[in-house]
Amino acid sequence: MKVLILGLDGYIGWSLALRQLSLGNEVCGIDNFSRRKSVEEIGSWSAIPILPIEKRISILQQEYGDKISFYAGDLVDSNFASDVIKKFKPDAIVHLAEQPSAPYSMIDQSHTLYTQSNNVLGTLNVLFAMRNHAPKSHLIKLGTMGEYGTPDLEITEGFMEVEFRGKKATIPYPRFAGSWYHWSKVHDSNNVAFACKLWGLRSTDIMQGVVYGTRTSQITDPSKHTRFDFDEIFGTVINRYCAQAVIGHPLTVYGKGGQTRGFLALEDSVQCMSILIANPPETGEYRVVNQFDQQYQVSDLAERVKRIADKKGLDAQVQRFENPRVEKEEHYYKADHEQLKKLGFKATRHIDDEINIMLDDLIIHEDRIRAKKDQMTKLVKWRDGSDMIKQRVVNPLILPMD
Amino acid sequence: MKVLILGLDGYIGWSLALRQLSLGNEVCGIDNFSRRKSVEEIGSWSAIPILPIEKRISILQQEYGDKISFYAGDLVDSNFASDVIKKFKPDAIVHLAEQPSAPYSMIDQSHTLYTQSNNVLGTLNVLFAMRNHAPKSHLIKLGTMGEYGTPDLEITEGFMEVEFRGKKATIPYPRFAGSWYHWSKVHDSNNVAFACKLWGLRSTDIMQGVVYGTRTSQITDPSKHTRFDFDEIFGTVINRYCAQAVIGHPLTVYGKGGQTRGFLALEDSVQCMSILIANPPETGEYRVVNQFDQQYQVSDLAERVKRIADKKGLDAQVQRFENPRVEKEEHYYKADHEQLKKLGFKATRHIDDEINIMLDDLIIHEDRIRAKKDQMTKLVKWRDGSDMIKQRVVNPLILPMD
């Protein structure tokens, strides 16, 4: 099977490439290295060092020969998108090549416009390239559970049945996204669903929860490590807490900490995507899956990381920070996630074990985390009118955690 | 009251400027003349000639002095959008400055990308400029009834109440748009609603039906005429039928002709927008109104135009053409449109009278219509893989009309 990974150089893209190669599939990757550049732009870096792309690919070629290929380029360049798909003729296309950070999209006007144009236009170029050169290919598009937001309703997988004024209908589940980034993913979902209807393409739109972890079964030595961001902009919550615990920085809980989300380990994210690659929907079908293992509240996660860190003799404190985001801090949350289980997904990682491994992996790179510790709290205020990255460190509001 | 009209040089923008000036309001307009350029690009022109913008503005200034001002520029240029709003400090901003044609967005990949980037990024720039320089201003954003598509449910005005798994909630009415253009408007609606929530802006999102007509009460002599497009790409259905009737060209009904839409006269479109300008929503409110007068099936409209044309001695024939669009040709359609009535809207034009006036206005310009008659049937096939404007004339399928 031929799998095209858009965004191969990223946190999940790299991990998925390793998995797909280990399964015997042929992998082609592309990347424009925007993740490396954006993290550098905001003054941070990956806690775990990663090799330059040439070395990464060369190491894979030593093991897998011509089963791995790579092209540097940008999906917003429609010729590039078209050329790659025309040349590789993939059976599956996993689209991880978007600006993936909500806070980054909230920095200022230019970052908002970049996020929406990059994500929407890049995806449109992929859709047109598929129509022209690989109409039977399966597009696995990374969306986010954040498209749904936190409505006061149970969250379904993409669609819901309603009765309204005496008529029944299946409608798309409503989206209540909470950042310009999250809305770019909703725009994508709408465009992808329309392309399936218009041209008979097939796609799985993954509403993914928050991913955590430093490892997968294929990440066995330093040359195969994937990046690990811990700054406020690109570091997701559990990953950031673990990095903070390692250097004795307060674990930054935003506001009341009652924010509930779905989470899954990197190992299981890669497992889910591999299951989807092996199980495409019908031609013309637009399928939505909710991809996460368990729901957690962020304040509980902070306490969990603290507890495990304490056992290792780390000095982890949990502190509430003024919430820079515009979000509910206490809310109802109950989301379906059955479809992947029906296809065979079983969570293989327990969160406590994973946090344990993460802390061990990160302790080695304590110096790299400490060097960029200010980037953990250089909070982008989502409601602000400012048009520059905030340089100030926000003073934490010292609130009781109970 | 200070009213900023984005897209003043267009069909509705110009008509609204005349109305707002006649009401004593101060009007500032902007335009990038994309409508003039796009209509030229596809090889057509306005049936009714319009003056160059300098002359249009100069004529208004003779009558209204410094109550009218104009800036040439593009909203995708964020500095331009910001400068205009900063300088004029509008009370209301009417946003008509988008690529407004569904078929244009379906021509090929570059026209799709242009439509979505132009519309989405231009609107984002307006929102940021409002936040920075006119946060109390009222954004009146032109969406379309086409955002809803043709679901098998009654259509509400923007939101619907549902009960789902034992919980009740108000959700956005689902969108089933049918072209890349229509989806760009959905993306806009989502972005505008989010900006209201995030920054406390206020906006009315108009889901407008199809507008027809050559006149408003202010269009009294040739120097004040608004443009009138009749080609397949920019000419809306009643307008196109009237132009076809005038030159004895078959009235081009697509497919079965059972497509039902909401319609309103240009005079009433301008009336509705003036009512909305005078009645802003609360600060932070995102309001959706469905703006149309009556629902009609397109085959009935063709018969109606034929009947009125016949009385004038015109030789109008109705013919079914192979449908280039991807749409249901027979479907349920019932859409609420109460909010504007509650604010005082009363339809002032009967469709038959309006068609009568249109035919009279167009007969004078029969030569201009005849010169571009091929542009009425150079049908853009929405499902096609081609990446160029089709030059061929599609042979009509001769089907019985009953």
How are the secondary structure elements laid out?
2 copies of one chain form a homodimer.
Chain A: E1 2-6, H1 11-22, E2 26-31, H2 34-41, H3 53-64, E3 68-72, H4 78-88, E4 92-95, H5 102-105, H6 109-133, E5 138-144, E6 159-164, E7 167-172, H7 180-199, E8 202-208, E9 210-212, H8 237-247, E10 251-254, E11 260-265, H9 266-278, E12 286-291, E13 294-297, H10 298-311, E14 318-321, H11 339-342, H12 351-363, H13 366-371
Parallel strand pairs in A: 1-2, 1-4, 2-3, 4-5, 5-8, 8-12, 9-11, 10-14
Antiparallel strand pairs in A: 6-7, 11-13
Helix pairs in contact in A: 1-9, 4-6, 6-7, 8-10, 8-12, 10-12
Structure overview:
2 copies of one chain form a homodimer. With 402 residues, chain A is an alpha/beta fold. Helix content of chain A is 38%, strand content 18%. The first copy, chain A, has 13 helices and 14 strands. In chain A, the strands form 4 sheets. In chain A, strands 3-2-1-4-5-8-12 form a 7-stranded parallel sheet, with helices on both faces. A 3-stranded mixed sheet of chain A has the order 9-11-13. A two-stranded antiparallel sheet of chain A has the order 6-7. In chain A, helix 1 crosses helix 9 (266-278), helix 4 packs parallel to helix 6 and helix 6 (109-133) packs parallel to helix 7. The first copy, chain A, is globular and about 55 Å long. The termini of chain A are far apart. The relative contact order of chain A is 0.15. Mean pLDDT of chain A is 94; it is low at 385-402. Chain A binds chain B through residues 78, 109-110, 112-113, 116-117, 120-121, 124-125, 128, 131-132, 151-154, 160, 162-165, 167, 169, 171-172, 174-175, 177, 180, 183, 186-187, 190-191, 194, 197-199, 326, 382-383, 385, 387, and chain B through 78, 109-110, 112-113, 116-117, 120-121, 124-125, 128, 131-132, 151-154, 160, 162-165, 167, 169, 171-172, 174-175, 177, 180, 183, 186-187, 190-191, 194, 197-199, 326, 382-383, 385, 387.
